[in-house]
Amino acid sequence: SQQGEEDPQALSIQEGENATMNCSYKTSINNLQWYRQNSGRGLVHLILIRSNEREKHSGRLRVTLDTSKKSSSLLITASRAADTASYFCATNSGNTGKLIFGQGTTLQVKP
Amino acid sequence: DVKVTQSSRYLVKRTGEKVFLECVQDMDHENMFWYRQDPGLGLRLIYFSYDVKMKEKGDIPEGYSVSREKKERFSLILESASTNQTSMYLCASRARLLPAYNEQFFGPGTRLTVL
Asked: What is the predicted pLDDT for the residue at A2?
């Protein structure tokens, strides 16, 4: 079952601009995670935000979480061509390590 | 650094063949997962394992089985491959910590084509 839905499905920006991706989910969560996938490769974990947190930063990444709206956003500031990838949100519920992934946002950063 | 390896990057098999996809992790993680990734559908969980010799069905287990005889290795088995199992297969592992506030580490993926 797919819990996360991401918006937009595709995003194309110029290098230096900011990129914002959104994720909505349906059920209550323990945490929400963002992953990056370079073309044809495995996923790499970017950042995790817990259900009792509202905002988190890691380098050029900023994640927000609004549990009342069941939504999260990932902001990449000052984007670089190397940020070109697909980005997935994933939610964790219950007391297992299972994640439910969204369908992803494909980001293209033009040099 | 955690390393998760998968036995093949690309694999081509024929319909009806038995297919083994192997995944090995080197960080003594208890939990391991198999996903398939298809365009427009994202990642879908096939099977997961909490620990050695333990397995649980995910969202799409039909046509697949798994084996976890050793902690570091989690195998996905397609008993009789079909063309609709053509996909990218991703393995992941995770340390079992309570509460579940930690990430999964992914292998590079195996792109399987069934002809």
From this structure: 44
Residue B102 sits at φ, ψ, to 5 deg, of -150, 165
Mean pLDDT across chain B, nearest whole number? Answer: 92
Cβ distance of A45 and B31 shorter than 8 Å:
no
Which of B6, B102, B104 to mutate to test binding with chain A, by most A CBs within 10 Å of its CB?
Answer: B104
pLDDT at B42: 87
- 8 A C-beta contact, residue B87 and residue B38: yes
CB of A76 less than 8 A from some CB of B: no
Distance from CA of A17 to the nearest CA of B (A): 26
**Pick from A15-19, A91-95, B62-66: least confident:** A91-95
Residue A77: partners with Cβ closer than 8 Å, 6 or more residues away? A18, A60, A61, A62
| Phi-psi sector, B85: left (phi>0), alpha (psi -120 to 50), beta | alpha
Q: Which of B48, B59, B109 sits opposite A42 (nearest CB)?
A: B109
CA distances from A11 to A8, A91, B17, B59, B85 (A): 7, 22, 40, 29, 29
Q: Which two tokens stand for residue B84?
A: 């609709």
Model confidence at A1: pLDDT above 50: no
Q: What is the pLDDT of residues A38-47, one digit of tens each?
A: 988 889 999 9
More confident residue, B99 or B83: B83
With beta carbons under 8 A apart, name residues in chain A contacting B112: none
